[in-house]
Protein 1
Amino acid sequence: MSTIELFPPGKVFQSRYAAFALQNRLRNQLRTVSLLQHFVDQVVLMSEQSAMNEVFLRNTIQHLNKALLSTELINETLSSPQELQLAAVLVSVLLEFLRGKS
């Protein structure tokens, strides 16, 4: 899925929903990794899960970054309250991803 499909220009509410969906998936993955670390003895299984999480995190961060930089999605002047809200949501989700990744 491309960034434009995920965050379509002119569809602020759909873009916000997509950002929240990504945020929810991140939280679920972080919980899963945390549970695996406590209950799984096999290092191979944990490394496979970790690799899947890394791909998801990398792709999501790239999509969020492109969405934030897209002047089609968010005007440089943040000319409407919806654009400002969308920018705030995207920044918030990106920061949560970066905190979870470190």
Protein 2
Amino acid sequence: MVTIFAVPGDSDFTICEERLRPEGTVRMKGVNPNTDIYVASKNGTWEVKDYAAARKAEILKAWPIDKQLEAITEFADNKPEKMNQLKDFIQTVKELYPKPTEDES
């Protein structure tokens, strides 16, 4: 049976049989959902390696700069709908990728 292994703190992973397990790896609970955002933890889960980068990537994927500028421009023209949508989306992303607490840093 094949299993997923990764080195804690690294975003790469290996899929192999237990007997071929690379040294220094831990058994993961699944594949890395996004190697740009997540790294392996010692407990076998994928954790956000840089919440700020994760937030930025998520926001720019849904709201590229040109759409953000459009929202700002329309807000200045007393049309707040797009700006409100942008603000709501950013709040959702902040909840999805929270800042680490002091004891997690």
Protein 3
Amino acid sequence: MVLAIAFTVACLCLPIAHFTPKGMGLDAEMFNLWIRTPEGGVSMQSSALFGVLILTATIGAWTIGGFRNRPRQAKLCVSKHAADSCLVCACCLLCIVRRLFVIT
């Protein structure tokens, strides 16, 4: 149980994407809370995703710890899946918005 919670916290700190902006040639890194630009700057455009990830990680850790109360654990699993679905929808919307409004 402790390992699952430790891995959840560690995954929140790892980079989730590397991408190369058009015409730049240098890689940018996307973390859960910020985007590190090739010049060394930091953009907080993805910080809304971090809030959703914190919510789902907290519910997941609480679900893992609630093994003694099975009905509550089942309800938490359902709410975690709903929050995960919201995360996927938020990622899709972010990609669509970024394609519609190209930021240069």
